[in-house]
Amino acid sequence: MSEELQKQYYLIRFKVLQETCYAIWYTDDIDGFLLDKDGMLRSFPTKEEAMAFAREEGLLINTKEDEFLLSSAILRKKNIRKINCSLFLNYWNLFSDIEHSMNCKFIGDSREEHIRHIYEKLFYGCNILLKENEEPYRPKWSKKEKCLIASVMKNGVKILSKGLHKS
């Protein structure tokens, strides 16, 4: 079996500056996005065009899960009031995958202690590792931490926009 067939492919719907487009995300040992010949995100204006491209390339899009929506409107807020750990962790990870695919710098992948601390709070706040009879972890967020999350998200949207050729 070829390496390409071992990857699992998913459709990601991006809504940036009121424009919707679709990209193909893959998961494997290293997750990423399909790129075009210019090294930008391979994007499609409609779901049908993305699916047609996938069929032509022999890529099986996993349709068991709904497509994932990443909307820049949600992430542009400078003052985040409520932190949905799962939502922000998913966005953070997708931005990281875009960064790895396009070989650019995302502040969320910084090894700085305060960035790692925020990421870990989001991760543990999802309660993925919660054992039976354990109390769920509900992180408390300082104003400084919320501002840092907003900065990470804003940087991610900037990378996404660059990858989609949108300024």
Overview of the molecule:
There is one protein chain. The chain has 167 residues and is α+β, with helices and mostly antiparallel strands. The chain has one domain (3-163). Helix content is 43%, strand content 16%. Strands 1, 2, 3, 4 and 5 form a 5-stranded mixed β-sheet that branches. Helix 4 crosses helix 6 (143-163). 22% of the residues are buried.
Structural class: alpha+beta
Mean pLDDT score: 86
Name the overall outline: globular
Report the helical percentage: 40-55%
Return the domain count. 1
Cα end-to-end separation: 40 Å
Which SSEs are present, and which pair or pack?
Layout: H1 3-6, E1 8-16, E2 19-27, E3 32-33, E4 43-44, H2 47-57, E5 68-71, H3 72-75, H4 85-102, H5 113-125, H6 143-163
Parallel strand pairs: 1-5
Antiparallel strand pairs: 1-2, 2-3, 2-4
Helix pairs in contact: 4-5, 4-6
Give a quick precis of the structure.
By secondary structure, the protein is an alpha+beta fold.
List keywords for this structure.
alpha+beta; disordered N terminus; 5 strands; single chain; 43% helix; 167 residues; 6 helices
